[in-house]
Write a structure and sequence with these properties.
The chain has 512 residues and is α+β, with helices and mostly antiparallel strands. Helices cover 27% and strands 16% of the residues. The protein is built from 13 helices and twelve strands. The longest helix is centred in the last third of the chain and has 17 residues. The N and C termini lie far apart (68 Å).
């Protein structure tokens, strides 16, 4: 915005410019709706008088300030983030049709948020804690979110225990203090936590920086290729800077001098061109191997031994751009395991199945129903659907239909080529079954019609014709086919009242 006004230059400090810039180049201060502000001082009745309610610019500023903070994340509240790119280095199209991996050399924009798990937003970066490692890939077939940690396993495998576990990591309901008895009481009753506890209290429990740790998708996911073949996979992000960790003494010293040590290190490194990188790898397991694996292949508390399921390089991820605004990009970033793309899907992992709902639901609470329209969360590819309205809707479909199915030629429609193959779970086949196939939808409506006397049938068809007659001709004809299949008289009466000649169609429109 440029300054188009010609007054106020002689009172630079009073009108909020605070300097001697030229009016032609200095941007003009405005209200939220874009109206220029002439003087940035409270409007009062006399120099010592009370404020006036008509000072709407002041009121707007105070009202917005009171609402600046959105609810912090219940988990992973303290975080840092950066933008970057993912570049494919190895061909894995034999395993997945995902467009992001479609050819060697392909680059995809991405955003990565690091975090601590247990601490609040004011927690210190260098505490002993698991580190969140959440990646959003802006692929050309939609956003793919991989929401993981710096550990390959987690504390629990049953989603019923997750919320209760997090309670033990937060504050005691009476003392409002972190409580070791809560933590260890829970862990002592959950032996499946031992693997993660061992990692957390090992020498790798306090990473020196966010640039010097590995990342893991942790969960088991599925890959499907162009032929519809499915395999199971795990994602690994191997730090190319080398692993560096802190001792307890170094952690205490760092916290004493800088509670934002990891945030500062990440931001400064990228600002000076020292871009951190990770080698992205996958492990692959077939269904036959999963069936014979000595542990549950979908257990989040277990790893797949790399000697049996070696790491396969996929590409390199680089962080090379700092956010312009922390709140807009990092605090509002919304990651959800349910953000999947064709070729990448979930698995029977119980914790992952629960997170598919839980993470999406928390963003509805924190950011609102249109959180996917916030720039940092917005897909880089076209978005075409029938989701409408809600608070802060930015793009709302214009005048296009807001329902499906519809028969409008230009409206978005499903494309069967993107359908996931059926999924066999024991003797059960998981698939998207067509609810219109193998159903008799005409006998009972026809029986009901035939129960009515002639006068009732006439009133019924008159009412329907009154509404159906306002639809497009092709819609009328399509609907008439259904009425004829239910009962020939039903269709004939309606056609007559609609003024449609049905002689050419009655031969093959008898009741089913």
């Amino acid at each position: 915005m440029t300054n188009t006004g010609s007054n106020g230059n002689s009172n630079g400090h009073a009108n909020g410019t605070g300097g001697t810039g030229s009016p032609a180049t200095c941007p003009v201060l405005t209200t939220a709706n874009g109206a220029p502000i002439g003087v940035q001082q409270a409007l009062t009745a006399g120099p010592r008088g009370p404020l006036l309610m008509q000072d709407v610019a002041l009121l707007e500023q105070m009202q917005h300030f009171n609402r600046e903070r959105i609810p912090e994340r219940v988990v992973h509240a303290k975080g840092s983030g950066a933008f970057g790119t993912f570049t494919v280095t190895k061909d894995i199209t034999k395993y997945t049709r995902a467009s992001i991996f479609s050819k060697v050399g392909k680059k995809t924009e991405m955003f990565l948020r690091f975090s601590t798990v247990a601490g609040e937003r004011g927690a210190a970066d260098a505490e002993r804690d698991v580190r969140g490692f959440a990646v959003k890939f802006y692929t050309d077939e939609g956003n793919w979110d991989l929401v993981g940690n710096n550990t390959p396993v987690f504390f629990v495998r049953d989603p019923y225990k997750f919320q209760n576990f997090i309670h033990t990591q937060k504050r005691h309901p009476q003392t409002n203090l972190r409580d070791m008895d809560m933590q260890w009481d829970f862990w002592s009753l959950c032996p499946e936590a031992l693997h993660q506890v061992t990692i957390l209290f090992s020498d790798r429990g306090i990473p020196s920086t966010y640039r010097h740790l590995h990342g893991f998708g942790s969960h088991t996911y599925s890959f499907t290729n162009a032929a519809g073949e499915r395999v199971w996979c795990k994602f690994h992000f191997k730090c190319m800077q080398g692993i560096k960790n802190m001792t307890d003494a170094e952690s205490a010293q760092t916290i004493g001098s800088d509670r934002e040590s990891h945030q500062r290190d990440l931001f400064n490194a990228i600002a000076k061109g020292d871009f951190p990188k990770w080698r992205v790898c996958v492990q692959i397991m077939t269904q036959a191997q999963a069936d014979s694996f000595r542990w549950n292949a979908f257990d989040l508390t277990k790893v797949w031994p790399q000697g049996e399921f070696p790491l396969m390089e996929v590409g390199v991820m680089e962080l090379n751009r700092n956010p312009e605004n922390y709140f807009a990009d990092v605090e509002q970033a919304a990651f959800k395991p349910s953000a999947l793309v064709p070729g990448i899907g979930p698995s029977p992992d119980k914790m992952l199945q629960a997170r598919l709902m839980s993470y999406a639901d928390t963003h509805l609470h924190r950011l609102g129903v249109n959180h996917h329209q916030v720039p940092v969360n917005k897909p880089r590819c076209p978005v075409m659907n029938y989701i409408r309205d809600g608070a802060l809707a930015q793009t709302n479909g214009g005048s296009a239909p807001n329902y499906w199915p519809n028969s409008h030629a230009t409206a978005p429609k499903p494309d069967a080529s993107f359908a996931d193959p059926a999924w066999k779970l024991g003797e059960t086949i998981v698939d998207r079954y067509d609810s219109t196939v193998d159903h008799d939808d005409y006998t009972q409506p026809g029986n009901l019609y035939r129960m009515f006397d002639d006068a009732h049938r006439d009133r019924l068809t008159s009412r329907i014709a009154g509404g159906l007659g306002q639809a497009r001709p092709e819609v009328q004809m399509r609907m008439l086919c259904h009425f004829f299949r239910a009962d020939a008289d039903y269709g004939t009466r309606l056609a007559r009242k609609l003024g449609i000649d049905i002689s050419a169609m009655t031969a093959h429109m008898q009741p089913a």
